[in-house]
Amino acid sequence: MATMPGQGPLTGVRVVELAGIGPGPFAAMLLADLGADVVRVDRPGGTGLAINTRFDITNRNKRSVIVDLKSPDGPARVLDLTARADILIEGYRPGVAERLGVGPEACHARNPKLVYGRMTGWGQEGPLAHRAGHDIAYIAVTGTLGMIGGPDEPPAVPANLVGDYAGGSLYLVVGILAALHHARATGTGQVVDAAIVDGTSHLSAMIHGMLAAGGWQDRRGANLLDGGCPYYGTYETADGQYMAVGALEPQFYDEFLQLLGIEDFASARKDISRWGELREAVAARFKSRTRDEWTAVFEGSDACVAPVLSLREAPQHPHLAARGTFTDHGGITQPAPAPRFSATPTAVRTGPAQPGADSAGVARDWDVPDLLKGLDRDGPATKGLDAKDADMKGLA
Question: Taking the CA of residue 387 as centre, how many other CA atoms within 13 Å lie in the half-sphere pointing to its CB?
Fold first, then answer.
């Protein structure tokens, strides 16, 4: 398939996504954003994600078919797809895909070049491999959650960005693309075991180095990058909003003090004994004006200060608006595909795939006519997978 403008660098790559929730769909969306033809295999009854499918942005740029993997011919339909695919993504608990007849061995028997991506929280083996879990539990045991928050407060929950998406989805995509490169060079596919506990731990590599060197204390709010430093953190403004400060280097720190109006604290940068005094002075100054007023003060400077915006405010920020970091598609404001490519630009081509809406097109384009068999039945044969089997989060 020839690469076309606006389709992305993965144009021509075929991906089968066995429907799940969280990190698996996000990883598949990223591949779809990069131009891959992602076919999401939805199951009758849905995945249990409490969101209207019209708004599930993680299913954009994909196509959807419905296959009941518990029906007699369900596994065969999936294997027909994998025989024509480059990549498969699944997020079931260990052993479930094998019991359903679509595990790595069955898929590689049909397509030895297939990259088989497995997305779980705990991984394919280990004492917790078969346990249910969510992002917060995965990042808790890695030490990552314990790093975040104030020194005298419970750990702060960073939504599901650190575990599900950073430690999970992004590591799965990196692994898949590396394995795809290997498969195309050697003709041999392989299994990619992407566990959120592994990826999230890997994200903290620099911190572990600092810890070993004595440059990081193993407690919250006591370090350079965790809010312990008074010139790297957030401060409330007069209107109850916040400003973010990251003035680490000397030249940025000096400019920060000058614009804030507390130049007398120049020597406090390296004097930890004065950090409490410095923090109080910075906090008092920020409380004297509104967020917008302080934004204007620091505009155009190298003081490394920025307003803390809400999700709805972010798309209107002048820099993000100028870059087109957010885009509107189908009436939904959403992040545009990232990163950017000079020769193969990406785009939001289609809105969220609706379950089963693309069966005819996929059957034609992938030459899998049997995919259409059984679609005229009066209702699905089952309600989908049991909750204990559905995926690594234990949801139906």
Answer: 5
Gap between the Cα atoms of 237 and 128, Å rounded: 44
Whole-number Å distance between alpha carbons of 220 and 223: 8
* Beta carbons within 8 Å of 174's beta carbon, 6+ residues apart: none
130 given a catalytic annotation: no
Q: Confidence class of residue 216 from pLDDT cuts 50, 70 and 90?
A: very high
Q: Which of 33, 135, 164, 198 is catalytic?
A: 164
Among 104, 70, 76, CA closest to 90: 104
Contact 360, 64 (CB under 8 A): no
108 is catalytic: no
Confidence tier at 9 by pLDDT (50, 70, 90): very high
Confidence at residue 375, expressed as pLDDT on a 0 to 100 scale? 64
Largest distance between two CA atoms of the chain: 78
Residue 178 CB neighbour total at 10 angstroms: 13
**What is residue 46's predicted lDDT score, i.e. its pLDDT?**
72
> Distance between CA 286 and CA 284 in Å, rounded?
6
Closest CA to 112 of 94, 90, 136, 85: 85
